[in-house]
Amino acid sequence: MRQKIESSSFFIGRGDDSLISFGSGQPDLPPPPEAFEALRTYNGFKYGLVQGDLVLRQELAKEYPGAKPEDFVITNGCSEAIDLTLRALQKPGGKVLLPRPYYYSYPHNVALAGMTPSFYDLNAQGKIDFDVFVKAAEGCSVALINSPSNPTGTVQELATLKKIEAFCDEHGMAIISDEVYKDIIYVRENYLMQGKHVVTVNSFSKSYAMCGYRVGYLYSQDAAIVKRTIEIKNHTAMNTSGVGQAVALAALRARQPYVDERLAIWKERRELMYTGMKELGLDVWAPEGAFYIFPKITDATRAMHDLYYEYQMITYTGEWFGARDRLRFSYALTTEKIHEGLRRLKLFLEKEYAAYR
Ligand SMILES: Cc1ncc(COP(=O)(O)O)c(C=O)c1O
C-alpha cells in the first residue's frame, strides 16, 4: 500500500544507498576543516548574548559594506530570521507580498506572524515582472524577495531589484531579502538589496554546508527593527546555540577559497542536470543560482509518488511551492548519483509518465 506523501517531512532524514534523493536542499559536502577544529576546542556552556556572539557579528559586518556589528542578530538559521523579522514588522491585518512559486515555508511564516500572504506570479522566464509586482503591492506592508530562488533556481534582474528597492522605499514598504543562496550564483555577482527599509536574512546552512547547526542571521540598518527582533527572541528561543556560532565563526573566517571551490562543484552539477533534462525533452529554466531545477511536469504530485514508489527517487512536488505543474529537483548530490537519477527519470518518462496524458 502506498502512503500518501503530504509534505517534505515525509522525506527529510529518509535515505539508503538504493534511494536517489533530489529532495532536501541540503549540501552533501562537508564544511571547511576549520569548522571541525572549532568544534574540538569549544568549551562554552552558558547562555550567550540574545543578539549573538559579538565576534561573529564583527566578522559578518566585514561582509556587508557600511555594516556595523550591532546591525546583526544571530538566529537559528535563516528560518528564525524570517520568523523574527515578520513578527517585528507585524501589523494587524497586514499583507505580505510573496512571489509564486515561493519557498514553501513563506506562506506559513506569514500566517504565523498574524498576517496574510498576497501572491503575484513570476513570468514565463521565472522572473519578476516589475509592473505585476507594483499592481500586486497595493495594500501590502512587506515584500519578500528571494534571489537566487528556491525552488525556481532563477536570479532576478539587477534592474528589477533596484526598481523594487526604490518603489518600496517610496511607498513605505519593508523588504525582507532572503539571500540564503547569495554565494551560489552562476550568472553574475550577487546583488545585496540595500536601504533602511531592507532586512537581509541569511544563514550558514547553504554557503558553509552546516544546515543542522542552525545558525543564521538578520541584518538591518534600522535599529528599531533590530531591537524588536532581539526582544522577541529574548522571550522565545533566547540565544542561538553557542557551539553553532563558534563553528559558524570558524567557517566564515575560512571563507576563501572554500566558497569558490564549492561554487565550481555546484556549477558542474548544474550543467549535468540542465543538459540532462534538456536531453530528456523537459521544459525547464536554466538554473542561474542555488541548487534547484524545476521542470514542468503534468500532475507533479502523481509524478512525485510514482518516482518515489516505483523508481526509488525523491523529488518534491511543485504543489508545495505554489506550482502544481512543476517538480523540484535539488542537485545536492554526487555526479554519479545525478547520472543514475537521470537514468531513472528517463525510464519514468518513457513508461509511467507516458500514460499521464
Ligand atoms: C529560500 C530559503 N530560505 C530559507 C531557508 C531556511 O534555511 P535555514 O536552514 O538557514 O533555516 C531555506 C532552506 O532551504 C531556503 O531555501
Tags for this model:
12 strands; 357 residues; binds pyridoxal-5'-phosphate; alpha/beta; 7-stranded mixed beta sheet; 3-stranded antiparallel beta sheet
Care to describe what's here?
It is a single chain. The protein is an alpha/beta fold and 357 residues long. The protein is 37% helix and 14% strand. It is built from eleven helices and twelve strands. Helix 4 links the parallel strand 3 and strand 4. It binds pyridoxal-5'-phosphate (PLP). Pyridoxal-5'-phosphate is lined by residues 25, 77-79, 103, 146, 150, 178, 180, 203, 205, 211, 216.
Oligomer: single chain
Largest sheet: 7 strands, mixed
Q: Please tally the helical runs, counting DSSP H or I stretches of 4 or more residues.
A: 11
Bound molecules: pyridoxal-5'-phosphate
Query: Which sequence of strands runs across the widest sheet?
Result: 2-8-7-6-5-3-4
Summarize the helix and strand pattern as letters.
EHHEHEHEHEHEEEHHHEHEEEH
Number of strands: 12
Shape descriptor reads: globular
Beta-strand content: 5-15%
